[in-house]
């Protein structure tokens, strides 16, 4: 069995390029991933010199891809042991332990991440574990609070809805189906309380108005004391996609 061989170079323009030889692959392949730089998979029968020329041939594509990727990286929170991060019910705690595993525990008012004492906290595996745990905390909180908020606001305004679901959605804060079933995004838990309420009132308004025409906005304006457009504009500063 032939071991993988790695060669790393630093390019003045595109940064770190890792060439990884894998006997199991048949073609040269370039991969760009957040915070990992450029990775080139090299078949056993292809020389590193040929792989370097392949990178040169694809330089303009790599630079274009890096520009897109950098926008994504800027949106991602990099957590450290000094990060002060809280959700509605939980405080994030990053703790080192003497094991080689990464463990997450949600409970007792904490999101606890246990990671190897020899590891760097910015290791992508640790960062993924943190984000996954935070996401799970938002899901727990959303299921705990959002259905009750929906019920209270619907009762206050004399509106009746069908089923309620809580989901992780990358594009929409909520939705109301033709049958008046309402779906709410777990990421509403990240919003200020008045915007979370606005989103719920927005979806409740669709029970009577299945569109965004003038009558819809007039009705939503009544529910928000004349602030519908103002609140909608404020909501646009946030995105359901957090990382």
SSE topology sketch:
Blueprint: E1 5-11, E2 15-22, E3 29-33, E4 37-43, H1 48-57, H2 59-75, E5 91-97, E6 103-107, E7 110-116, H3 124-156, E8 164-167, E9 174-176, E10 182-185, H4 193-205, H5 214-223, H6 228-235
Helix pairs in contact: 3-4
General description of the model:
The chain is an alpha/beta fold and 243 residues long. It folds into three domains: 5-75, no CATH class; 91-137, no CATH class; 141-235, Metalloproteases ("zincins"), catalytic domain (Zincin-like, 2-Layer Sandwich). The protein is built from six helices and ten strands. Strands 1-2-4-3 form a four-stranded mixed sheet, covered by helices on one side. A three-stranded mixed sheet has the order 5-7-6, covered by helices on one side. The protein has a three-stranded mixed sheet with strand order 8-10-9, with helices on one face. The radius of gyration is 24 Å and the shape is elongated. The model has no long low-confidence stretch (mean pLDDT 92).
- In the CATH scheme, the class of the largest domain would be Alpha Beta
| Mean of residue pLDDT values | 92
Structural class from helices and strands?
Answer: alpha/beta
Mass-distribution shape: elongated
Q: What's the helix count?
A: 6
The CATH homologous superfamily of the largest domain is termed Metalloproteases ("zincins"), catalytic domain
Rounded to the nearest angstrom, the radius of gyration is 24 Å
Overall strand count: 10
Low-confidence stretches: none
CATH topology group of the largest domain? Zincin-like
Q: How many strands, which pairing sense, and closed or not: the largest β-sheet? A: 4 strands, mixed
Percentage of helical residues? 25-40%
H and E string: EEEEHHEEEHEEEHHH
Which CATH-level-2 architecture of the largest domain? Answer: 2-Layer Sandwich
> What is the beta-strand fraction?
15-25%
C-alpha termini separation: 39 Å
Q: Strand order across the biggest sheet?
A: 1-2-4-3
* Whole-number tally of structural domains: 3
């Amino acid at each position: 069995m032939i071991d993988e061989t790695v060669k790393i170079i630093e390019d003045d323009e595109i940064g770190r390029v890792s060439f990884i030889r894998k006997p199991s692959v048949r073609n040269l392949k370039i991969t760009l991933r957040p915070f990992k730089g450029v990775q080139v998979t090299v078949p056993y029968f292809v020389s590193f010199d040929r792989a370097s020329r392949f990178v040169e041939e694809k330089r303009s594509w790599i630079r274009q891809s890096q520009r897109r990727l950098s926008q994504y990286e800027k949106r991602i929170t990099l957590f450290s042991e000094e990060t002060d991060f809280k959700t509605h019910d939980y405080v994030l705690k990053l703790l080192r332990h003497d094991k080689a595993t990464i463990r997450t525990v949600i409970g007792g008012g904490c999101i606890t991440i246990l990671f190897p004492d020899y590891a760097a906290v910015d290791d992508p595996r640790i960062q993924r574990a943190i984000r996954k745990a935070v996401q799970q905390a938002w899901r727990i909180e959303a299921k705990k609070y959002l259905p009750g908020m929906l019920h209270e606001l619907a009762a206050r305004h004399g509106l009746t809805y069908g089923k309620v679901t809580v989901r992780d959605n990358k594009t929409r804060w909520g939705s109301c189906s033709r049958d008046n079933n309402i779906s709410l995004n777990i990421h509403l838990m990240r919003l200020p309380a008045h915007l979370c309420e606005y989103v719920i009132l927005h979806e409740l308004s669709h029970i009577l108005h299945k569109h965004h025409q003038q009558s819809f906005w007039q009705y939503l304006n009544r529910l928000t004391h004349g602030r519908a457009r103002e609140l909608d504009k404020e909501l646009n500063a946030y995105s359901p996609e957090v990382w």
